[in-house]
């Protein structure tokens, strides 16, 4: 599937139908990721971690539900923030091991994501700067405009393993 998807991404430069087929391959790979199980680290702590995340949700699909899992030292904590904005969770004594977004729609443009799981989310991207580390897409639908960094993101989505690490400026 990766080779086919990559050929479709290349062909999509001049053929919108090929680009749509490449996105269908990425959607299918995301569907296949439904078997994934991630390990969650929880260090001992007295109180639950309260975190805050800012992002652009889809007016058409609404905001995804957000949950966190695990508890780790701040240097290992999951992140989801708008590039250039201060991390409102940086001063916490502990942070979540994973951030999970479920349902709805979200834009990845100008976002930094670390240890994030998107499950059944419409993922929008227009090629703007993006930084992802250890991100999983499970049952997601990709709505990606073919410009700037978008082809490289789709190539990365199609590669094994399921965990995505990607950077575009």
Shape: globular
Kindly give the count of domains.
1
End-to-end Cα distance: 27 Å
Structural class: alpha/beta
Which segments are poorly predicted (pLDDT under 50) over 5 or more consecutive residues? none
Based on DSSP secondary structure assignment, what is the total number of beta strands?
A: 9
Give structural notes:
The protein contains three helices and nine strands; from the N terminus they run ααββββββββαβ. The protein is of the alpha/beta class and 169 residues long. It has one domain (2-44, 53-168). The radius of gyration is 16 Å and the shape is globular.
SSE blueprint and pairings:
Layout: H1 2-11, H2 16-32, E1 65-69, E2 79-82, E3 98-102, E4 105-107, E5 111-119, E6 122-125, E7 130-138, E8 141-144, H3 150-158, E9 164-168
Parallel strand pairs: 3-5, 4-6, 5-7, 6-8
Antiparallel strand pairs: 1-3, 2-5, 7-9
Helix pairs in contact: 1-2, 1-3
């Amino acid at each position: 599937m990766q080779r086919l998807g990559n050929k479709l991404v290349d062909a999509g430069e001049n053929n919108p139908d090929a680009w749509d087929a490449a996105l269908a391959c990425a959607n299918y790979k995301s569907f296949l990721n439904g078997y994934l199980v991630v390990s969650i680290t929880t260090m001992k702590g007295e109180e639950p971690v309260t975190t805050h995340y800012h992002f652009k949700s889809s007016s058409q699909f609404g905001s995804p539900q957000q949950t966190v899992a695990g508890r780790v030292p701040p240097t290992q904590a999951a992140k989801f923030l708008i590039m250039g904005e201060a991390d409102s969770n940086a001063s916490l004594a502990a942070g979540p091991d994973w951030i999970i977004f479920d349902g709805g729609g979200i834009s990845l443009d100008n976002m930094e994501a670390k240890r994030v799981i998107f499950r059944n989310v419409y993922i929008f991207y227009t090629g703007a700067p993006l930084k992802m580390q250890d991100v999983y897409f499970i049952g997601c639908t990709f709505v990606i405009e073919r410009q700037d960094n978008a082809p490289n993101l789709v190539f990365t989505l199609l590669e094994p393993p399921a965990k995505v690490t990607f950077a575009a400026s």
